[in-house]
Design brief:
The protein has about 290 residues and is of the alpha/beta class. The chain is about 45% helix and about 15% strand. The structure holds nicotinamide-adenine-dinucleotide. Nicotinamide-adenine-dinucleotide binds next to helix 1, helix 4 and strand 6.
Length: about 290
């Protein structure tokens, strides 16, 4: 099956990024969100990000104009039903995602493929709630989508090879690189990355190093482009904690227990950059460590 029309559910940081790269690759995109104002903000952000790509010569102005012309927005989920592929990128809560797929089912054409951008929730479990688990797959983009090269493909237990091939062809047309992950908690990238971040928070919690020294150690000592604590702030501490909880519950191993200090920051609402404060305070001119 050749995919040309794509519906994207959720116009947050991931959904808007996914719409951006799809439109630039020539797909006709319908971007849906429950919040109309979120859709306006998403299109504005896509347009600004494409301006930056034009400024640095990555694309020409004509490509930007054509791509923006290929993005339609709606608050009506059923309008996505005629798409060849629907990518769900709504909030990381299983109940939210199950409701979206349940609401979509009566409106889908028979050949529509369903994909979820979930960071950690079981693809098999999400697929099992639809009437087409063979046409369901995990399609996990990295943040920021327009910059990051990798996409994880996750087969549910029933995902057909036709679905896998069709979605692999989309990743290829986007110019991105796919890796295949089995459907176990948090897949590959977050299985390794989020416990690393959690360990960095333990290192802070136990007083082994300061925020600055922990980040500097991993940047200069392990050649990471960002320190683990600034990366945690970028991802969102609530998202990091949600993924640690999925690992802890899904694998039942104490090595995945979330650091109490991470829990405390989330309880305080210090969720990282998006909240203005996390392991660093972003409200001034330069980020200042909060411990
Ligand atoms: P976000 O909070 O920026 O955006 C979520 C969007 O979903 C919001 O605009 C919200 O209004 C919308 N939404 C909520 N309920 C909805 C519904 N019923 N129908 C339609 N839209 C709805 O979150 P995000 O960071 O874009 O994450 C979205 C998904 O992508 C999550 O599953 C997350 O785990 C995954 N993800 C996130 C990252 C990351 O680094 N942030 C990376 C890879 C994958």
């Amino acid at each position: 099956m050749t995919i040309q029309t794509v519906g994207v559910v959720g116009a947050g940081q991931m959904g808007s990024g996914i719409a951006h790269v799809l439109a630039l690759a020539g797909y006709d995109v319908t971007l849906m969100d429950v919040h109309a104002e979120g859709l306006g903000a998403a299109v504005q952000k896509i347009s600004e990000n494409m301006d930056r790509q034009v400024a640095r010569g990555a694309i020409v102005a004509e490509e930007r104009a054509h791509a923006l012309g290929r993005i339609r927005t709606t608050v009506n989920l059923p309008e996505l039903g005629t798409s060849d592929l629907i990518i769900e990128a709504a909030t990381e809560r299983e109940a939210v995602k199950l409701k979206i797929f349940g609401d979509l089912i009566p409106h889908l054409k028979p050949e529509t493929i369903l994909a979820s951008n979930t960071s950690s929730i079981s693809i098999t479990r999400l697929a099992g709630r639809t009437e087409r688990p063979e046409q369901f797959i995990g399609l996990h983009f990295m943040n920021p989508v327009s910059v990051m090269q990798l996409v994880e493909l996750i087969r549910g237990i029933a995902t057909s090879s036709e679905t896998f091939e069709a979605v692999s062809a989309v990743v290829q047309r986007l110019g991105k690189t796919a890796v295949v992950a089995e459907d176990f908690p948090a897949f590959i990238v977050n299985r390794i990355l989020i416990p690393t971040i959690n360990e960095a928070v333990y290192t802070l919690y136990e007083g082994v190093g300061s925020v600055i020294d922990i980040d500097l150690s991993m940047k200069l000592g392990a050649n990471h482009p960002m320190g683990p604590l600034e990366l945690a702030d970028f991802i969102g501490l609530d998202t990091c904690l949600a993924i640690m909880n999925v690992l802890h519950e899904g694998l039942a191993d104490t090595k995945y227990r979330p650091c109490p200090l991470l829990v405390k920051y989330v309880e305080a609402g210090w969720l990282g950059r998006k909240a203005g404060r996390g392991f660093y305070d972003y409200r001034g001119k330069v980020p200042v460590p909060t411990r």
